[in-house]
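Researcher: Before we compare anything, I want clean individual predictions. No alignment, no superposition, just each chain on its own. First chain goes here; please echo the sequence and then give the structure tokens.
Model: Echoing the first chain and its structure:
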Amino acid sequence: MKRLRLVVFDVDGTLTKVASSWQFLHEKLGTWDKGRRYAEQFFQGAINYEDWARLDASLWAGLKFEAVQKIVDSMPYTDGVREVITTLRSGGLKVVLISAGLSLVTERIKREMEVDDSLANDLKVENGSLTGEVKVNVSVDNKDAVLGRMLEKFNLRMDECAAVGDDETQIFLFEKVGLSIAFNPRSWVVEERADVVIKGDDLRRVLPYLLGKRNCGLLV
């Protein structure tokens, strides 16, 4: 493996203690009954991810952006997130975020902690209110392509990157990067595809691997 120069983090369930920013908002806004049905349709194969995202976003049409942002800002971070990002960037590594969740969350992280780039899905806003529309930038199966476009800007290759995440949206990334870390993987498939598996509450446990101070292996 070449020397790592960039780390790409999943967000929901990795940098935050919330497994899904979509579901978190539904539950806080009282729209989860319908949101759950849309989720079931997606997992049954009746709709694709883009349709699922659009149906979800439609439930929030007319809500004040400021109120929604306040809910997102209450989302708890995983223990050690700030230290991990600061330590990696101090060590000369780029840090980017790629999430199939909401850019409201990635933009909050960018405001509160310095990262080099991010991409997630944008809820559209007009005159201070959500329109009920969404721009889908990251789906469940295109994170590798998204990272590939980002790397052009940094003049880096996939084998110079590490990916840290917890769910199946990471699998294509895990297959291409130089180091893959499953942090509290949600399924055996994610665990099986990772170079390193870490289970616990503290994200700082990824640092020895990302900084090259420990050989890759299974950590439970």
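Researcher: Okay. Second chain, same rules.
Model: Second chain and its structure:
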Amino acid sequence: MDLIFRAILSYVTRKSGLRLEMYRESYLRRRIDLRMRILGFQNLSEYYSYLKGNEREVNELIDAIAINVTDFMRDKTPFEFFMNRILPEMGKKRLLRFWSAGCAYGEEAYSIAICAFEATESDFTVYATDIDEDCLQKAAVGIYSESQLKNLDEKIKQKYFEKLGNRFKVKDFVKKRVRFKKHDLTSQEPITKFLDAIFCRNVMIYFTEEQKTKVLRDFHNALVEGGYLIIGKSESIRAQGFECVSLTEKVYRKV
């Protein structure tokens, strides 16, 4: 790892608190290269000088690293599995607790809430976390384009969203079940304990093996016995303490 690249990581870590060394080097280089192309810089030294003189660029780089492209019930079938298989198995617990880890603009967190409303009569809370404060602010507002709801049928849209011109706002009774908070998986303890299910989809693919091990250990500690972990379709885990429930849907259970 060259000195300038290491200096950039160190500077952004000091400014933001995000431990960039826990992300894969190849991934970080691609995201920095993206910012350099956008700004027209030819080498890391030029970009580093610009970065130190422009605090806003620290946030722009963090945004580039924390890719936040998603939509409601992304890949759909894992959410159908959660709604039709997992939630009914949880029975009638007084309170269910779920965590959307890396929630981006809130689509996943609200999708979890919609599944819970559809499949259980239990009270529930969805904890939704991300490192990007701008994302969290927009998630709390809960307004989305029609394209972001493309995986939802019309009945679900009418039940859980208000139409605002050509956009859709999550209804208040849904928003009340979701708690948004800034959280860094790479350095902080789990957001809470005694969770029934954790969604962490398409996040760990950017981590080093060391960081992935840390995060999976945290998830294991945060889940109740028999609690579920749902990861991204392109991800896989080999962690002690989890058994695979569905390889197709990438659903695991704490044992």
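Researcher: What stands out in the second chain?
Model: The chain is about 45% helix and 20% strand. Additionally, The chain has two domains: 3-65, 77-254.
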